[in-house]
Amino acid sequence: MHRRPHRTQVPTALRQRGFTLVELLVVIAIIGVLVGLLLPAVQAAREAARRMQCQNNMKQLGLGMHNHMSAFNAFPPGNVNYDESGNRFKTGGWQHGQNELGWHWLVMLFPYMEQPAMWERVKICEESRSDSHTSNPCDDCEYHEFTGHLGREQLASFDHCPSAPAIRTQFSDGSYGLEALAKGNNYAACWGSGDMLSWEKPETRGAFGTHYAHQDQILNITPDGTFAGDRFQNSNGMQSRDFTDGLSNTIAMSEIIAADSRTDIRGVWMSPAMGATIFSAFRNPNSNEKDVLAACGDEINDPSTTTTIDSKDRLECLEVRDTAEVYAAARSYHTGGVNVLMADGGVRFVTDSVDNLKIWQPMSTAQNNEVVVEQ
Predict the structure, then answer these.
(1) How far apart are the C-alpha atoms of 229 and 272, rounded to whole Å?
(2) How many C-beta atoms lie closer than 10 Å to residue 181's C-beta?
(3) Edge-to-edge strand order for the sheet containing 210-212?
(4) Of 99, 164, 163, 85, whose CA–CA distance to 129 is shortest?
(5) What parts of the sequence cross the membrane (predicted)?
(6) Of 19, 150, 304, 344, whose CA is between 20 and 30 Å from 172?
(7) How many C-alpha atoms does 331 have within 13 Å on its Cβ side?
(8) 37 CB-near residues (< 8 Å, 6+ apart)
(9) 149 close to 181: Cβ distance less than 8 angstroms
(10) How confident is the model at residue 306, as a pLDDT?
(11) Separation CA 57–CA 113 (nearest Å)
(12) In this structure, is residue 30 part of a structural domain?
């Protein structure tokens, strides 16, 4: 006869009670709601940090500008051009007919941005053209191995906004005369309120412009040959006294966004082209009107459409190469506006809805004697 084992009775109050399926689903739903509430806050905090880093980058560029002014009594010129008059607004390569160009503002800031290695490569390239009257840094320096193919690699983080996506595509457009140039630059010098020739008129002139010089200023022609002089022209940019509207009232730089397109010039740090390292305040920040460029991406350019951007792609553009009437708006991936660096070194945030004629354009010019109306 088998005895049943004795079972100890556990009091009901001491028994462990598990979750029911309904309770488990409720808990999961609550966690999901909390995550949904926290995620935008986390993303906003991350964007705030990226925006702050972007502003710090601009402050460093501003410090570099003022260190340059301390050394040469002037900001660097936007770019140097000693070509024939019809080419004074063009920025292509040799095959596009531009073979008498000097350097531009971003390169001239290398010694003041802790970029000694890059500056050494710039000097090597320049010295290689010392016995020639022709020069085009975008073309010459990228081509030669002894310069380390200067221009093919992206710069250090000081010229990238953390909010902008990484662009690894190189610019190559044979018809524009330039090949294998790195992209990714997100900061542009203010060219004023007009097109590529804004610098010719006080009412549209910005903090930067072309130093257009006669060949005699650049070249040293002797019976023994032609020798290059100074293709940097560091002292021929804007001096502090030239800012009759005031340094604190004039935009020196703002943001641009690079296009992930092989044939689009925007974001190419080696080029002085509109949209590459310069912008115009002709249109508002993040304008819904298309940029007009000398090199617009083949897959982005659609001349059959109007000048208005019809989609969410803010990089739609039109291509114009035979006139100076090209414009690239300040653009960023920050919500609602762009950062701007003032000529005195301060950084501000300007909204997309800023009044173009009363505020944005007056802020972009240095000598038009406008009174900026605060919103």
Answers:
(1) 20
(2) 26
(3) 101-104, 79-81, 210-212
(4) 99
(5) 21-42
(6) 304
(7) 26
(8) none
(9) no
(10) 63
(11) 10
(12) no
Phi, psi of 88 (to 5 degrees): -70, -15
In the three-class reduction of DSSP (H, G, I as helix; E, B as strand; rest coil), residue 16 is classed as coil
Structure tokens at 82: 């000693």
- Give domain status of residue 371, yes or no: no
Instruction: pLDDT band for 27, please (50, 70, 90 cuts).
Output: confident
Contact 343, 366 (CB under 8 A): yes
Query: What domain range is 229 assigned to?
Result: 39-364
Domain count, the chain: 1
Burial of 47 (0-12, 13-18, 19+ CB in 10 A): middle
Tokens of 368: 């038009």
Could you give the dihedral angle defined by the CA atoms of residues 319, 257, 207 and 215, in that order, rounded to the nearest 10 degrees?
-50
- DSSP-based three-state secondary structure for 255: strand
Structure token pair of residue 39? 């995620």
Half-sphere exposure of 325 (CA within 13 A, CB side): 5
**Beta-bridge partner residues of 255:** 187
- Which of 4, 234, 286 has its CA nearest to residue 126? 234
Structure tokens at 49: 């940090």
Q: What's the residue count for the chain?
A: 375
DSSP 279-345: E-TTS-TT-SBPEEESS--TTTB-TTS-SB--SS-TT-EEE--SSS--B-----SSTTEEEEEETTS
Bridge partner residues of 347 (DSSP): 341
Q: Which amino acid, one-letter code, is at 65? A: M
Q: What are phi and psi of 290, to 5 degrees?
A: -70, 140
Contact 92, 177 (CB under 8 A): yes
CB atoms within 10 A of CB 372: 16
Given this model, what pLDDT does residue 307 score? 67
Residue 4 lies in a domain: no
Contact 72, 201 (CB under 8 A): no
- For residues 61 and 67, what is the distance between their CA atoms, to the nearest angstrom? 10
